Give the backbone structure.
Amino acid sequence: MELIQAFGPIEKEFKKVEDVLCASLGSSKNKSILKVNRFLLESEGKKLRPAMVILSAKAEPGKQVNQLTSKQVIKVAAAIELIHRASLIHDDVIDHAELRHHQPTINYRWGQDVAIAAGDYLYAEAFRLIGECGNSDVLGCISTATKLMCEGELQQVCERDNFYLLKRQYLMVIKKKTASLFAASCQAGAISVDSNRIIHKALKGYGLNFGIAFQIVDDCLDLIGKREDMGKSPGVDFKMGELTLPVLNLVSRSRDKTRVMSLIRQADKQAAFKEIRQRFIDSEAFIKTKEDVKCYIQRARRSINTLSESCFKESLFAIADYIAEKL
């Protein structure tokens, strides 16, 4: 199933999220800010996180949701999308990235100063929207995830060029950096409509395991993907000295570890990246990485097996399968 089909049951709500994003980013009276914000609105991101907020809010069949609560869910979904976009802007600054979603990054187009300030602006706007909902549990859920996300990013940067990075350390970083916001998206959706705590836990587990799988796939595609498919240049992680799971699997399963480690230490050389890429594609490490992804996707699916059957639960399954099939 394609993502557009998975989003089918929430098509109307998805349009409302777009409306809130347009209103939020189009409210400034400053022409320079509006220029940057309009550029952001043109992003072709998949908007997985706001979709998960809405699907999770609807995951309990028979739950009666009033109009006010429905509006709050939309605001929460829009806020989480803004937090995600803010994190991407800051990521691009840190990685000196020039391209994302087939478009120039903000730091490439306007410089790092504008990009940093734009990311801060989106964080502020996101928490303004969350504050308007008046739900302290939702605020606590998302603010905790945002802190973890920033902590994971900082930890990842600090671990660059750590040739002794362990798999458990890598997993801890991506749980914080990526999976925490997916988990919060699902949990916040359930909290917004006052679902019971069993459902909160199930959906949070889905989001956490989905997020881990999502990041492993992203890291793998950075190694083997093509620019025209990804919308950005591959090899950023390698160039920045970040040891991701695909590379860690390659090191652990290589018969010539000395050569692999020598290539990793040549992060500034395109020839080294090309050899690492080909070694990975031809190795058992690629198979192991796909198995790792499959394992976390299965955990995500099992987390929500106990939920009653609905088109919304099926959409969550479909989104998980979509990610699993990207490798």
Q: What stands out?
A: The first strand starts at residue 99 and ends at 100. The mean pLDDT is 94. The chain has one domain: 3-324.
